[in-house]
Write a structure and sequence with these properties.
By secondary structure, the chain is α+β, with helices and mostly antiparallel strands. The chain has nine helices and 13 strands. The strands form three sheets. Strands 8, 9, 10, 11, 12 and 13 form a six-stranded antiparallel beta sheet that branches. The protein has a four-stranded antiparallel beta sheet with strand order 4-7-5-6, with no helix packed on it. The chain has a three-stranded parallel beta sheet with strand order 2-1-3, sandwiched between helices. The relative contact order is 0.17.
C-alpha cells in the first residue's frame, strides 16, 4: 500500500456472541493476517465480557484504531459502534445509525421503498401468524440477523416444522418469494470517502437457495463476475446498491443483495430487480464475496482491508 498511513497499531475485533460467531472469527483471522503486512495488529476475540473488552482497548498499549470484524447482533447493529464512539476509538465500517437501520430489515425495507427501490412484498408478523401472509412459496427471515441465519423458504405442501425451534424472537419477516437469480453488489469508499459501486456478481448456490452453508462452505456456490445479465440490469444493480449505501449512511464498504426475476413479462423485457438487504459488515473469509468482487476490480485483499483501516473514524 503506497499511501501514507495514519495508524500504526490496529485491533481486529472478532468473535462476538451472535449466531455468526464462527464466521466472524474466520473473517477476523483473515483480516488480521493481511493487516500485518502494514500494521502492528492485536487480535481480540470478544466473548461477551464488555469490561475485558474495554480494558483491551484502553491503557498503556491501546490500539489507535479498530478493525471491526464482528458480525450479527452486537457487532453490526450499532451496539459495538456506540461503545467505540464512547471510547473515542476510530473504527472501520459504518457508524451507529447506518448499522442499526441496515440490520433491522423492516427499517431498511421502508427506507428502500422511500427512495424508490423495489423490495419484495413483505410483512413483519408474530411467529404464529407467519403462515397467513402469503400463499407459498414465501420466505421467512429473522428481522435482525445476517448471513442467511434462520432464513427458510416455505414451499407448497410444506408444514412449518422449520419454525418449531425458532430462536430469533417473537416476530418474523415474511416476504413474497421472488423466483430468478441471486445477485450482489459491493460499494467501496475511495481514499477521499467517495463511494463507488463495483461490478455485480451472480451467485449460483448448490442448495435450492442461498443458505448459510452455501455462503461459507467451500464449493457451496458458484460465483460469476461480472454477472451475466443485461447491461441495463447491471447498471440498475450498481445504482441501487449505491443509493442504498448513501441513504443508510454507510461508510467504508457495504454489500447489497438482490433477486433478479428474468422471466419475461409485458413491459419489462429485461425482467424485474428487487433489493433484499444491505450488509454493513460483509464477510471477509476465504469464500466471502466482497474480497472476490474487489479482486475483480484489481484491489488485493491486503490493500482492501488496509484501505478500510485508513478510512476509519468515529461517529456517523
Amino acid at each position: 500500500m503506497s499511501q501514507a498511513r495514519q495508524f500504526e497499531h490496529v485491533a481486529v475485533l472478532m468473535g462476538g456472541r451472535s449466531a455468526e460467531r464462527e464466521v466472524s472469527l474466520a473473517s477476523g483471522r483473515a483480516c488480521a493476517q493481511a493487516l500485518r503486512e502494514h500494521y502492528r495488529v492485536t487480535g481480540i476475540d470478544f466473548t461477551g465480557d464488555v469490561s475485558a473488552l474495554v480494558r483491551s482497548l484502553t491503557g498503556q498499549d491501546a490500539p489507535q484504531v479498530v478493525f471491526n470484524a464482528l458480525h450479527g447482533r452486537y457487532g453490526e447493529d450499532g451496539t459495538i459502534q456506540g461503545l467505540l464512539d464512547l471510547l473515542g476509538l476510530p473504527y472501520t465500517h459504518s457508524g451507529i445509525c447506518a448499522s442499526a437501520h441496515a440490520m433491522d430489515k423492516s427499517a431498511s425495507r421502508s427506507l428502500f421503498t422511500r427512495i424508490g427501490l423495489r423490495v419484495p412484498a413483505g410483512l413483519v408478523l408474530p411467529l404464529d401468524e407467519a403462515a397467513t401472509a402469503f400463499p407459498p412459496p414465501y420466505v421467512i427471515k429473522p428481522v435482525a440477523e445476517g448471513s442467511s441465519v434462520g432464513v427458510c423458504v416455505v414451499q407448497p405442501g410444506d408444514n412449518q416444522s422449520s419454525l418449531s425451534d425458532w430462536a430469533f424472537g417473537d416476530s418474523v419477516l415474511v416476504e413474497q418469494y421472488i423466483p430468478g437469480r441471486e445477485l450482489t453488489c459491493a460499494v467501496l469508499d475511495d481514499a477521499d470517502g467517495r463511494p463507488g459501486a463495483l461490478a455485480p456478481l451472480e451467485i449460483r448456490p448448490r442448495d435450492p437457495f442461498y443458505t448459510y452453508d452455501s455462503k461459507y462452505a467451500v464449493g457451496g456456490s458458484d460465483h460469476l463476475i461480472p454477472a451475466p445479465v443485461p447491461k441495463s440490469i447491471s447498471l440498475a444493480i450498481r445504482a441501487a446498491a449505491l443509493a442504498a449505501h448513501r441513504a443508510l449512511g454507510c461508510r467504508g464498504v457495504s454489500r447489497s443483495d438482490f433477486r433478479y426475476d428474468d422471466s419475461s413479462s409485458p413491459g419489462t423485457p429485461d425482467g424485474q430487480l428487487f433489493i433484499l438487504e444491505t450488509n454493513t459488515q460483509p464477510g471477509m473469509t476465504a469464500t466471502s464475496l466482497v474480497p472476490e468482487i474487489a479482486a475483480h476490480a484489481g484491489i488485493g485483499f491486503s490493500d482492501l482491508v488496509a484501505g478500510l483501516v485508513e478510512g476509519a473514524r468515529c461517529g456517523d
